[in-house]
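Work Package 4 report. The design task specified in the project plan requires that, given a folded chain encoded as C-alpha cells, an amino acid be chosen for each position. We show below one input record used in the internal validation round.
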C-alpha cells in the first residue's frame, strides 16, 4: 500500500481516501463536501507556489489549502506509468499527449481501458511494459504521459 498525504500528490495522481485528520470547522466542511474515507480523489492542479491544491472528488472540483491537504491520507492507486512499480498490472485511464503521440501509442495498442504489465523501470530511464502479448520500451517522457490505475493482485 502506497499511502501519502494529499498535499504530496502531483497532478494526475489519485487514489482512495483512507483518513481525514484534523478537527473543528474545516474538517466538518471537508466531510460535508464528500472528502470522506473510501472516496476516490485525484489532484487536478497545484498552484505555482503549492497552495491551494485543486482536487476532484465525487465528480466535482474543490480547492483546498495545502495545510488541509496534509491532513488527508490517500492510498495512491492512479498516476503516470513512471510512478508504477515492477510487476504491477495497471489499466490505462488516459494518454495526456498531443494527437501525434496518442495516435502512435494507439497503433501500439495503448489506449484507455487497455491492461498493461510493468516489466521494469518506472522512476528513472525507460519503462518496459507488456501489452497485448508484446513488450515495449517507453522513454520516460512518453511513460509520464500515460495515466494508469493499479489493479489489485489476482490472488486478492
Amino acid at each position: 500500500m502506497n499511502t501519502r498525504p494529499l498535499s504530496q500528490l502531483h497532478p494526475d495522481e489519485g487514489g482512495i481516501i483512507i483518513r481525514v485528520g484534523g478537527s473543528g470547522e474545516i474538517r466538518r466542511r471537508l466531510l460535508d463536501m464528500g472528502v470522506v474515507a473510501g472516496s476516490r480523489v485525484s489532484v487536478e492542479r497545484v498552484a505555482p507556489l503549492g497552495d491551494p491544491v485543486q482536487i476532484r472528488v465525487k465528480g466535482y472540483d474543490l480547492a483546498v489549502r495545502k495545510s488541509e491537504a496534509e491532513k488527508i491520507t490517500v492510498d495512491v492507486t492512479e498516476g503516470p506509468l513512471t510512478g508504477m512499480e515492477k510487476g504491477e498490472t495497471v489499466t490505462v485511464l488516459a494518454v495526456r499527449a498531443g494527437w501525434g503521440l496518442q495516435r502512435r501509442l494507439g497503433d501500439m495498442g495503448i489506449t484507455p481501458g487497455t491492461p498493461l504489465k510493468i516489466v521494469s523501470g518506472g522512476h528513472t530511464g525507460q519503462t518496459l511494459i507488456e501489452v497485448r502479448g508484446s513488450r515495449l520500451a517507453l522513454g520516460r517522457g512518453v511513460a509520464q504521459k500515460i495515466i494508469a490505475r493499479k489493479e489489485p493482485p489476482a490472488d486478492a
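The longest strand covers residues 72-80. Validation will be extended to a larger panel in the next phase.
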